[in-house]
Amino acid sequence: MNLMNGWRRTTSCKVTEEVEEKIEHEVKDNFLVRWWKTVIYEEYKLTIYFAAAKVVDERGNEIYSRTPKHYKATKLYSLKPNFIKFKDNENQVIEIKSTEPMNWNLVKVY
C-alpha cells in the first residue's frame, strides 16, 4: 500500500532494547586511588525490599509482594528481618522498623 510522499506501510515488529544509563563525564580512578579508597572508605549499596501486600492462600501460607528502596550506607549497625539500622552517606543514622519481615541486598562498593 503506497502512502503520501513515497512512504510505504510495512508490517510492524516490536523492537525491545535495554538502554543503559550512561554517565557522560565519568572520572575513572587509577589503581592507587581505587586501592586507597578500599583501605580508607567503607561504602555499601543497600537495597531493602519492603512488604507491599500480604496474601494468604487457601493452605494458610503468607505470600508477600515486595517493593525495593535503595540506600547508600557508610556504616551498618544492625541487619535483622524486622529492624535495620545504618548510617547513610550524609552521616545520618537511619533506623527502619517493621512488623512484617523485610529482605535486603547488601553490596560493598569500597
Keywords:
single chain; mainly beta; five-stranded antiparallel beta sheet; 1 helix; disordered N terminus
SSE inventory with pairings:
Layout: H1 31-40, E1 44-56, E2 62-79, E3 83-88, E4 93-97, E5 103-108
Brief sketch in words of this structure:
9% of the residues lie in helices and 44% in strands. The protein has one helix at residues 31-40, and strands at residues 44-56, 62-79, 83-88, 93-97, 103-108.
Explain the overall architecture.
The protein is built from one helix and five strands; from the N terminus they run αβββββ. It has a five-stranded antiparallel sheet with strand order 4-3-2-1-5, with no helix packed on it. It has a domain at 43-110. The longest helix is centred in the N-terminal third of the chain and has 10 residues, at 31-40. The termini are far apart. The protein is mainly beta and 110 residues long. The chain has one helix at 31-40, and strands at 44-56, 62-79, 83-88, 93-97, 103-108.
Strand order within the widest sheet? 4-3-2-1-5
Number of helices: 1
Biggest β-sheet, characterized?
5 strands, antiparallel
**What pattern of helices and strands is seen along the backbone?**
HEEEEE
Q: How far apart, in Å, are the first and last alpha carbons? A: 60 Å
Mean model confidence by pLDDT: 78
* Structural class estimated from helices and strands: mainly beta
Strand content: 35-45%
Question: What oligomeric state do the depicted chains represent?
Answer: single chain
Unreliable spans are 1-19
Number of beta-strand segments: 5
Global morphology = elongated
Gyration radius, to the nearest Å? 23 Å
